[in-house]
Amino acid sequence: MTQDGWKGGLSPEEILDARILLVDDNPTNIELLELILQGNGYRNIRSLTNPQEVVPLYRTFRPDLLILDLNMPFLDGFQVMRLLKDEEEGDYLPILVLTAKADHATRIQALKAGAKDFLTKPFDHAETLNRIRNILEVRLLHMQSRRMNVILEEKVRERTAELEESRKEVILRLGRAAEYRDNETGAHIKRMSELVRILALATGMDEGQANMVSLASQMHDIGKIGIPDAVLLKPGKLTPEEFDIIKTHPGIGGEVLSEGKAHLTVLAREIALTHHEKWDGSGYPAGLSGEAIPLAGRLTALADVFDALTSIRPYKRAWSHQEARDEIVAQKGRHFDPRLVELFLENYDAFCRVAAIYPD
User: Does the domain at residues 12-153 carry the CATH identifier 3.30.930.10?
Assistant: First the structure.
């Protein structure tokens, strides 16, 4: 056999290495097909004369081509094809049907059962080889395409994961930039966002939603980059005028994040603008109250206060966890959403563990 006419991205060796399964109850037909195939370089051939053995062998051999007789005892070719459909699991198995019947009805029935082509007995040598080669090329190119798709999908997953990791890193760095200006540590951002995640899950959010809110909360104080150092870093008590300046940082954060269209950026802006609002309406900058304050802002407010109270600052000692717990309970219905305070109490031990995992 010449190599003229080989197609696509397949080499002659790939074609000749293809796994071929012959099934015919007539040993003479099997021997003839084996002679034709082996004489032309095919080297991976299995054969059966008992159709009841096809399915078990199919599971281990996984042929690239099944050459199947239609008229056999115990199971005819139509029955074998029906059984193999349950084994394919989305795979594409080309079936070349052997038949002495060339009538239209038989061919239609075979095509409906899964046949892709026909070989009419007695076999013509050249026709047999060309039909086998053509059907194998389609099969192997199909498998090649599937392998490439798997590789591409894996590369897309890897690239998506890299981009997601880069996005998280940028967000964390932005959050830390604001916190470092306030003499706080990057650990505060990690703790606070983890506390937000714990509370978010407790409200009934799924993992994806909770992780999104947690990630967005890391930029809650990004507006601090617009506060003058003389005010932001003042070690003593702020004057009313200075505190008014501090209260502009949610609006600055909202402005910094205002052009973003992605869901994460929109959520981060919402948190930046509302994490200093209070349940009773006494917060800032908009004086929102109750459920008019977005849930993400309410979650961040409680988590931020708990971590701020239990952390050392130049102007204060670190409160104990119990002291912070008591203060949050005291602010139930005032500073904090009463429902979130109850969820905080249910998850108090988890809050305490976060402090141990991410120390300053």
Answer: no
